[in-house]
Amino acid sequence: MAAFEAQRPRLQRLAYRMLGSVAEAEDVVQDAWLRWRKVEAPVDAPAAYLRRVVARLCLDRMKSARARETYVGDWLPEPLLAPESDPSDDLTLTLMLALERLSPLERAAFLLHDVFGVALGEVASTLDRDAAAVRQLAARARKHVQAARPRFRVEPAEADRIAQAFFVASRDGDLQALQTMLAEDVVIHSDGGGRVLAFRNPIRGLARVLRLYAGLRRKFTEPPILLRPLVIDGLPGYASIDRGRILQTTALELRDGRIAGIYIVRNPDKLRHVAAALAAAPGAS
To answer: Can you name one GO molecular function term for this protein (predicted)?
Structure first.
C-alpha cells in the first residue's frame, strides 16, 4: 500500500500526459492499483513495475479509443492546474497538443525517456521493443514536438498579471488594450465538446479575434466573472463564469511577449475537477 501511494502522484502525471484526460488518468491509476493488490511475490523495483503497468494500460486505451474521431469541435486536453502538475517537467498545453500528433508508441517513448527520465532499457521493456527501436521512436517524437517546447518560464506573479489584464480587456471589449497584447497570428481554440456553445473551428488572426471580442461585448449584457487566475498546464490562465453562466478555463500561450494562443475549455465533462478544486480553495463561495 505505502509503495503504491508513494508512486501515485507520478503515475497520475504519466497517465494524464499519455491520455490528456484527468478522469481517464484516475481510472488507469485505479486499475494499476487493483493489479498491484493482486501481486503476491515481492516486487524488487515497485516504481519501474508500476510505470510499466500504467504505460501499458494507457497504450491499450489509446489504441482502442474512438471518441476523438467523432469529437464535436476542437479537442483540448483537460485543464491541469498548477498544484497537480510537476514543476520539474515543462509539458505545457501546447506541447500536449503536439504530442497528440504522435503515434501511441512515439508518445510513450518520448514521455517515459525524455520527460520522466526512464532509462532506455526500461522503456524498451515497457513497450516490448528493442532499445534501438525505442531510440528511434523517441528521436522522431522529439523532432515533431521540438517547436512546441516552452522557450521560457513565466513567473507566477507575471502569469497572474497577464491573465487578469487579458480577462479585463476581453470582458470590456477593449480593442486597444487587446491589440497591444495579442500577436498578429493569434489563434483561439474553444472546446465545448458539443455539450455547450463553443467555437466549432479555430479563430485565426488578430483582426478576426478583435472583431470577435467586440461582438461579444455588444451581444451580451451580462459580463463574465473572473473566479481566479490559474496556471493551466504550465500556461498563464484563469477560471471564469462566462456569458451564459458557463464555467470555463482560459489558458494563454505567450510568444515574444504577446499572446499567440488562447485555449478555452467549456466542456463541463472536462471541468469537474476544476470546479471541485475551486470549491475547495480557501475563500471559495
So the answer is: DNA binding
